[in-house]
Amino acid sequence: xxxxxxxxxxxxxxxxxxxxxxxxxxxxxxxxxxxxxxxxxxxxxxxxxxxxxxxxxxxxxxxxxxxxxxxxxxxxxxxxxxxxxxxxxxxxxxxxxxxxxxxxxxxxxxxxxxxxxxxxxxxxxxxxxxxxxxxxxxxxxxxxxxxxxxxxxxxxxxxxxxxxxxxxxxxxxxxxxxxxxxxxxxxxxxxxxxxxxxxx
Length: 200
Fold this sequence. Notes:
Elements: E1 2-5, E2 8-14, E3 31-33, H1 37-42, E4 47-55, E5 58-67, E6 78-81, E7 84-89, E8 92-97, E9 103-108, E10 114-120, E11 123-128, E12 132-135, E13 141-145, E14 160-163, E15 166-170, E16 176-180, E17 185-193, E18 196-199
Parallel strand pairs: 3-5
Antiparallel strand pairs: 1-2, 2-4, 4-5, 6-7, 7-8, 8-9, 10-11, 11-12, 12-13, 14-15, 15-16, 16-17, 17-18
């Protein structure tokens, strides 16, 4: 995936062929980020996310992030802003400086996985598997919210929608929850039967 940011072209991809400390020059990155030293030593992580920053078609920095777990790079798995990139990798959020790709911070949020990141005023909403979080740009958790089931909906309903001044959520069983931006629940619509919703 390639995106433009200011005068940079930023490429993000899963470099499945990268082997840490390989003598192959094509697999060398200027920076390697991982919170798990075992993964770094074994070079056998599930995720090997490469970030390459170019200016006028010249590479000015690159980095690779090694992580366990299963995830992917999608349009809603990263945000570029304020000369930083916030990127979700499995159950962690990484914040890297642009263009140096130095690690500003990383934090584990949802125990299982983080699926998407969304802007909310000066903060972010993270859609995790078991919790929804509002975090600051510095990674501080402002609030979190869990429903009666995981935040994966098998009926194709959007698990998270930010609209007007509310956040609308659907869990695995299609129970619907509506929160305000402070994380307070203002609606709880329980699914009680096939397609039937009980509003509170």
